[in-house]
Amino acid sequence: MINISPIYATTIVQKIALYCSSYNGNDVYYLKESIMLMINLYGEENLVEMLKKDNSNNKLVVRKIGEDWYKPKGMKKKLKKISLILSKIHGSYSILEDKTLTKEYKNKEKDKYFKYYLKFCKEFPKIEFNFYALFVFLIQNSSIQNMNISSQYLKVLESGGRTFGGVQKERLRETPLEGGI
Amino acid sequence: MKLMHDLIIRRLDVSKDFDLNNENSKSIWTFYEVYKLCVNFLGITDNQLKRKQKLILSLIINPDNIVLLNKLKTYISEDNKVVELTLNSLKESEDIDEIYEDFYPVSIFGVNLDDRGN
Fold first, then answer.
1. Is residue A76 pLDDT above 90, yes or no?
2. Is the pLDDT at A88 greater than 80, yes or no?
3. Rounded distance, CA A25 to CA A18, Å?
């Protein structure tokens, strides 16, 4: 069992909360962020050894991830690839003017960023099931498994859906407050 | 494993906010995420994987199956009987190859099926 210090644990739970309350590719981006952080907290070599010795319900999948970790088609390489794909998706989504992705918006051919977004999204199937197996393993073998996801961490969905914990969207002030802030 | 339970339930909550008939298929996307977490959390064997994948997609695509999805949610929160539920329903999942091909992956991002290749 890996003991994760409270500051990292909170950061990871916040990222997981963002994963829960996002979609359109951003969700998995946050999942990836939490995985990357946990890999570094485990230590890569230590993690690989733990994966190889896993005895959970999902041991067939998890042990294979450990055994193939450093191989050309192993998880280490795949994580790099996944990271790149998700960064592209997340980046192109962030600069979209209209995040609702309505039919009218899709028909606006002028929006090159939307085209980029769609192009990158088509790479999404390259993210394999094992990615999730790794995530579950990392959670199951750390002290973080006993934490709860607080409602305050859940993001307000940008394009519809329910708000959590009574949080409402609020427009930021356009004019600075007195005192210069 | 409080965190995994919490995560799955929250994710299902988000999915439920979207209309299952919505062509944007955001619910398909989020349910599929839930599914992937569930099978890895509960454990799978290689030969079960594809069949379960098809099953969950059939559940998601058919709005009449919202009851089953609610059951799924209950099972996860109560005592991890999702595997039992999945295995019991496998018999019904044999004829959905085409649905699987059509819906995954492009439509999950809100692209109409006709748009593929453009």
1. yes
2. yes
3. 12
With CA atoms as reference, the chain A residue closest to B1 would be A145
Residue A159 phi, psi (nearest 5): -125, 60
Distance from CA of B70 to the nearest CA of A (A): 18
> Which chain A residues in 71-110 lie under 8 Å from chain B, judged by CB atoms?
101, 106
CB contact under 8 A, B4 and A145: yes
How far apart, in Å, are the Cα atoms of B73 and each of A61, A114, B36, B41? 24, 34, 14, 14
Residue at token pair 């339930």: B9
Please give the Cα distance from A172 to A174 (Å, whole number): 6
Cβ atoms A114, A96 nearer than 8 A: yes
Kindly list the residues from chain A whose CB atom is less than 8 angstroms away from the CB atom of residue B39.
129, 132
A19: phi then psi, degrees, rounded to nearest 5:
-60, -45
Judging contacts by C-beta atoms under 8 Å, the chain A residues touching residue B115 are 106
Q: Is A179 left (phi over 0), alpha (psi -120 to 50) or beta?
A: left
Nearest to A87 by CA among A49, A127, A139: A127
Distance from the Cα of A119 to chain B's closest Cα (Å) equals 10
Measured CA to CA, the distance from residue A22 to residue A174 in angstroms comes to: 27
In the predicted structure, residue A50 carries a pLDDT above the cut 50: yes
Q: Which pLDDT score is estimated for B12? A: 65
pLDDT, tens digit (0-9, with 9 covering 90-100), for B71-93: 555 544 443 444 444 434 433 44
Task: Provide the whole-model pTM.
Answer: 0.68
> d(Cα A108, Cα A114) in Å, to the nearest integer?
9
